[in-house]
């Protein structure tokens, strides 16, 4: 039996994730009507699913603790953080400042997600993308969104 | 048979309208494009272009989306042969002998054989849909709700077979997907479920946000974590026309590949990738001199390339006749049809003959277009590889953001995408594949509906699933499929298949 390791343990963390989601779901299913087999309420099927998921999550936790499991891959926070931030900012800005501004901000923030990008290149691309999207999506495909604030 | 040809003629009338021809062309060009570019698969691209299709009528939309899928099979082989980078997982095995051929100065021959094999396989696969579709749909119309429930169980089990890595994890992913599919209004009582009190969630989790996050953007982040591979000088193409002698030699391989692909495409748990690997194994086995394989055997290109194209076409059979997906891409097609107000299932052929036959006819046209845009214009596609990823990912992100936003014109969907991207990223790190999750998500509501309806009509007797012959057979098939994955020799074979991808 291998000693329990925090770092390399795919099974353990999968189990934690799945049981966590299941418990979160159960918290909301609690208020639903469960009913019986004959008179199934809206909570019957979700309750079954959540309980199975919880069970599988717990099995994975036990398996992870007992056997160690394979290692979790290296996590790089830089691309994850900047890509997610750029996306969220697009969501915040698109209705407040219009599409053009949202695209410019998104591209510039996403630019920092990679070590290989070049600032000037990304700036030009941001401008081109803003212009092209305005023409294609707003003008031709008529997506109802304002371009400017 | 006469019926089939009359219907096909009608289909061609639908598909050959200028609008549908245009969208078929756009679809296959986009497909070739993403096929050539590694790191952007059909699942992400179809979800990307899904919002764009809202402005179209459903027929044009589905013609275009289907074109992306089978077009990607053509594009993937181009880069596999020329630069040893398989654009799609279905072309991994093509790279083995195809790239060797290119190094020997036979790149043109390999490309031509791949394109011609794909064309023949694509046409035969499409013919199979036309011939097998209507009788299968007629059979499915006899299905009652317990049979449907079991059919969906079979569909979900097939997702486990397709998944890479741990079987237990794949099953857990299905349940997670099913649970996510429950979010929103309960169809029977109208009660909101697990909506966290948010109005935005009362219609359920936005399908596009889920797919884009789990597949599209999580993929971009994963790609950014690696140092981008530089494409060094690729092989020159001398002539793209193979000699008659070569064509006569690969004829049998193309036919074998087509046969294998056709079967794997229809079967649950099949799919284009496994079809390509199996075709390669078969070619190696029947060859008089197996040692040529790995050193530029033309059969090693012809077999798998025909198989992946045939499978790409015939995987539409279960979708259009029974309404169940056999792969993540087909799950996406279900989502696309539903968003356009068409319920996939046995009624599609009789109620939407324009859609069914138009789609089939467009597949013949699309395959022809692909041969034309792939062979003479090969140089343009190869040049595309020169676009560096540091520019490409920015473009992908912007299109994804606009795509998600435009589904409901809501920023909430963008925030949901952020959440699902994070989930997709974590799952990737935990070696869990998102494909079974997507299958569960798509099939979840239908599974529940049929489960509830079955038990109500059977007065709460759960034995109803085992008493109806159709349902029983489907459940036995599901169990057999699950057991077959657990058999050691298949476990090893699966391991080998996925190790190379």
Question: What is the structure about, briefly put?
Answer:
The complex is a heterodimer of chains A (149) and B (501). By secondary structure, chain A is mainly α.
What does this structure look like?
The complex is a heterodimer of chains A (149) and B (501). The radius of gyration of chain A is 23 Å and the shape is flat. With 149 residues, chain A is mainly alpha-helical. Chain A has two domains: 10-66; 77-140, no CATH class. Mean pLDDT of chain A is 84; it is low at 1-5. In chain A, helix 1 (10-29) packs antiparallel against helix 2 (44-67) and helix 3 packs antiparallel against helix 4. Chain A has helices at 10-29, 44-67, 77-94, 99-111, 119-140. In chain A, 65% of the residues lie in helices and 0% in strands. Chain A is built from five helices and no strands. Chain B is mostly helical. Chain B has 23 helices and two strands. Chain B has helices at 2-15, 18-36, 42-49, 58-83, 92-103, 107-140, 145-162, 167-182, 207-225, 244-266, 272-286, 299-314, 316-322, 328-339, 347-351, 353-374, 378-384, 389-408, 411-429, 435-457, 464-467, 469-486, 488-500, and strands at 184-185, 192-193. Chain B has a two-stranded antiparallel ribbon. In chain B, helix 6 runs parallel beside helix 12 and helix 8 (167-182) crosses helix 20. Chain B is globular. The model of chain B has no long low-confidence stretch (mean pLDDT 81). Chains A and B meet through helix 1, helix 2, helix 3, helix 4 and helix 5 of A and helix 8, helix 9, helix 18, helix 19 and helix 20 of B.
């Amino acid at each position: 039996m291998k000693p329990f390791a925090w770092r390399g343990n795919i099974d353990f963390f999968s189990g934690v994730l799945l049981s966590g989601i299941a418990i979160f779901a159960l918290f909301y299913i609690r208020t639903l009507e469960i009913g019986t087999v004959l008179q199934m309420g809206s909570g019957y099927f979700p309750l079954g699913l959540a309980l199975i998921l919880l069970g599988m999550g717990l099995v994975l936790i036990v398996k992870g603790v007992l056997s160690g499991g394979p290692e979790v891959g290296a996590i790089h926070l830089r691309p994850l953080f900047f890509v997610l931030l750029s996306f969220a900012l697009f969501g915040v800005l698109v209705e407040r400042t219009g599409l053009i501004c949202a695209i410019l901000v998104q591209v510039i923030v996403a630019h920092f997600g990679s070590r290989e990008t070049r600032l000037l290149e990304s700036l030009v691309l941001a401008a081109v993308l803003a212009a092209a999207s305005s023409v294609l999506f707003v003008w031709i495909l008529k997506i109802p969104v304002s371009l400017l604030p | 048979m006469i019926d089939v040809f009359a219907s096909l003629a009608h289909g061609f009338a639908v598909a050959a309208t200028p609008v549908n021809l245009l969208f078929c062309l756009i679809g296959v060009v986009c497909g070739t494009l993403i096929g050539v570019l590694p790191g952007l698969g059909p699942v992400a691209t179809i979800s990307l272009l899904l919002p764009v299709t809202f402005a179209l009528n459903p027929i044009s939309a589905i013609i275009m989306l289907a074109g992306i899928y089978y077009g990607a099979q053509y594009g993937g082989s181009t880069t596999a042969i020329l630069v040893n980078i398989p654009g799609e997982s279905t072309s991994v095995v093509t790279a083995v002998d195809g790239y060797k051929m290119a190094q020997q100065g036979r790149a043109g021959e390999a490309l031509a054989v791949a394109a011609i094999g794909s064309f023949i396989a694509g046409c035969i696969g499409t013919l199979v849909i036309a011939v097998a579709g209507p009788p299968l749909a007629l059979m499915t119309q006899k299905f009652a709700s317990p049979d449907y429930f079991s059919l969906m169980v079979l569909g979900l089990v097939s997702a486990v077979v397709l998944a890479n890595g741990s079987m237990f994890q794949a099953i857990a992913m299905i349940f997670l997907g099913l649970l996510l599919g429950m979010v929103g209004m309960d169809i029977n009582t109208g009660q909101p479920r697990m909506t966290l009190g948010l109005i935005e969630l009362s219609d359920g989790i936005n399908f596009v946000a889920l797919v884009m996050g789990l597949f599209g953007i999580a993929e971009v982040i994963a790609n950014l974590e690696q140092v981008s591979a530089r494409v060094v000088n690729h092989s020159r193409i001398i002539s793209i026309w193979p000699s008659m002698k070569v064509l006569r030699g690969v004829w049998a391989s193309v036919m074998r590949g087509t046969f294998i692909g056709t079967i794997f495409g229809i079967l649950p748990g099949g799919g284009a990738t496994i079809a390509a690997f199996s075709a390669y194994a078969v070619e190696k086995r029947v060859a008089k001199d197996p040692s040529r394989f790995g050193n530029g055997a033309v059969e090693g290109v012809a077999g798998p390339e025909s198989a992946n194209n045939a499978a790409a076409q015939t995987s539409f059979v279960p979708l259009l006749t029974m309404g169940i997906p056999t792969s993540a891409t087909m799950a996406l097609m279900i989502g696309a049809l539903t968003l356009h107000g068409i319920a996939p299932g046995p009624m599609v052929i009789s109620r939407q003959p324009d859609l069914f036959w138009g789609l089939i006819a467009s597949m013949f046209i699309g395959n022809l277009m692909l041969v034309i845009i792939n062979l003479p214009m090969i140089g343009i596609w190869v040049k595309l590889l020169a676009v560096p990823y540091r520019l490409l990912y920015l473009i992908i992100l912007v299109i994804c953001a606009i795509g998600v936003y435009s589904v409901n014109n809501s920023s909430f969907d963008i925030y949901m995408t952020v959440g699902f991207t994070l989930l997709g990223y974590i799952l990737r790190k935990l070696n869990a594949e998102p494909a079974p999750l997507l299958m569960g998500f798509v099939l979840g509501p239908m599974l529940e509906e049929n489960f509830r309806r079955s038990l109500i009509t059977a007065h709460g007797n759960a034995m109803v699933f085992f008493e109806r012959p159709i349902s029983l057979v489907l459940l036995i098939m599901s169990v057999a499929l699950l057991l077959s994955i657990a058999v050691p020799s298949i476990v090893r074979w699966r391991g080998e298949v996925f190790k190379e991808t």
